[in-house]
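Async update (no meeting this week)

Hi team, since we skipped the sync, here's where things stand on the single-chain job. The sequence we agreed to prioritize is pasted below, unchanged from the tracker. I ran it this morning and attached the output directly underneath so nobody has to dig for it. Comments welcome in thread, and please keep replies under the output.
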Amino acid sequence: MLQTQFVMREEESRSVQAVIERLAVDARARGVFVVDKAGQLIGEAGEMMGVDSTSLASLAAGCVAATGGLALIFGEEEFPTHYHQGERDNLHITLLGERMILLVVFDERSSLGLVRLRVKKAGGELARIFEEARKKSEAQAAASTSSPFADITDDDIDNLFSD
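Output:
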């Protein structure tokens, strides 16, 4: 399936930023990142200054891709939620629609239950924002792919080539 190029406008970007900033506070997360499946960072919030967010985005997308391969082995389409537990930090990764990944980094100040609860609400809001952006991108792509010759009539062509 050929996908149109995803374009996110300033208004949608502000909406995404507001949702992830609220999620960072409500989930008591150290950081919240939205990444597309190609590994591009879409938004970030929280206190994770000093983290290489470009590498984080790329590795999160790689993790989702690898886990998608595992899912296929077990006859699943995807595993939509991933959890990684570390000594200090934990990662909660959720797929948002077909293109986006929500990554939440949290420590002992929060809990997996709280993060899952807050991600469920924020994930729904983000999915809605991305779906609206996708529809706008597709509509714009459809409008731009119409033939530049669509409104040229036979009379216009005759007039062009007549002396």
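Quick observations from my side:
The chain has a mean pLDDT of 88.
The CA atoms of residues 39 and 57 lie 5 Å apart.
Reply here if anything looks off.
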